[in-house]
Design a protein that fits this description.
Helix content is about 75%, strand content about 0%. The chain is an all-alpha fold. Helix 1 packs antiparallel against helix 3.
Length: about 230
C-alpha cells in the first residue's frame, strides 16, 4: 500500500521548516545533547531536505507525461495515415476481392489498439516486401516500407518511454512521501524536545519550536484571557 503524507501542507513548506529547525538545533546544540540528541541529527535532517528538493514536482511530472502522450499520438497518427494510404494503393492494384488484398488483413487497421499498431505495421511490411515490383506502379517502394518500419519502431519506443515515465512518477512519488514523512516525524520529535527545553526558560525560543510542532502552543493564563 502506498504511504500517505502525515502532514497537511506542501512539501516545500516542510523543507522550510526543516531548514529553520537546523538553525535552532545548531544554536541549541548543547541543550539538545542533554536530551541524548546526537550531532549526526543535523546531518540527517539536512540530507532529508536535500533529497526532497531533488524530486520533480507534480506539475513537472504532468508536463513530462503530457509531452510523452503527445509524442505517442503524433507518431501513431502518422503511421496510421501511411497505412491507410497504403491500403488504398493495394486496393487499386489488386482489388478488394483479391487474395493479395485479403492477405494484408486491412480490417485490423480499423480495429486496432496502440499496443499492436506497430506490430501490424511490421506485418504489412513483411507481406509487401516480396511484392515491391508490382507495388511500384502505385509509387510504393522500399523507402516507403522503410518509413513504415521506422515509424513502427518509433511508436514502440514512444510507448515504452510513456510507460517508463509513468512508472517512474509513481515510484518517485512513493519515495518522496516516505522521505517527507520521515522528515516530518523527525521534526515533530525534535520540536517536542525543544519545547521542553525552553518552556520555563525562554518563551521566544519555546514559540520557535511550536511553529514546527503538530501541537498547539501552550498559552499563559494572561494570553488565554486575552
Amino acid at each position: 500500500m502506498d504511504p500517505k503524507p502525515t502532514f497537511q501542507f506542501p512539501i516545500a513548506e516542510l523543507i522550510l521548516r526543516g531548514d529553520k529547525l537546523l538553525y535552532y538545533l545548531k544554536r541549541d546544540s548543547t541543550q539538545f545533547k542533554n536530551y541524548g540528541v546526537k550531532d549526526t541529527t543535523t546531518e540527517r535532517i539536512s540530507n532529508l531536505c536535500n533529497s526532497l528538493e531533488q524530486f520533480y514536482s507534480e506539475d513537472q511530472y504532468d508536463e513530462i507525461i503530457h509531452d510523452a502522450t503527445v509524442n505517442v499520438n503524433c507518431i501513431r497518427n502518422e503511421l496510421f495515415a501511411i497505412l491507410n494510404s497504403f491500403q488504398n494503393s493495394i486496393r487499386l492494384i489488386y482489388g478488394t476481392k483479391s487474395i493479395e488484398f485479403r492477405l494484408f488483413k486491412f480490417r485490423c487497421l480499423h480495429n486496432i489498439t496502440d499496443c499492436n499498431l506497430s506490430e501490424y505495421a511490421q506485418y504489412v511490411v513483411k507481406i509487401a516486401t516480396p511484392r515491391l515490383p508490382t507495388l511500384k506502379i502505385r509509387h510504393i517502394t522500399k523507402d516507403t516500407l522503410d518509413k513504415i518500419c521506422n515509424l513502427s519502431n518509433d511508436l514502440s519506443d514512444a510507448k515504452n518511454y510513456y510507460s517508463q515515465v509513468t512508472n517512474e512518477r509513481n515510484e518517485k512519488q512513493t519515495e518522496q512521501v516516505r522521505t517527507a514523512n520521515e522528515l516530518h516525524s523527525t521534526l515533530i520529535s525534535l520540536c517536542e524536545i525543544g519545547k521542553n527545553i525552553w518552556i520555563e526558560k525562554n518563551n521566544a525560543y519555546y514559540t520557535e519550536y511550536v511553529i514546527n510542532s503538530s501541537k498547539k502552543p501552550i498559552l499563559s493564563t494572561e494570553e488565554q484571557l486575552n
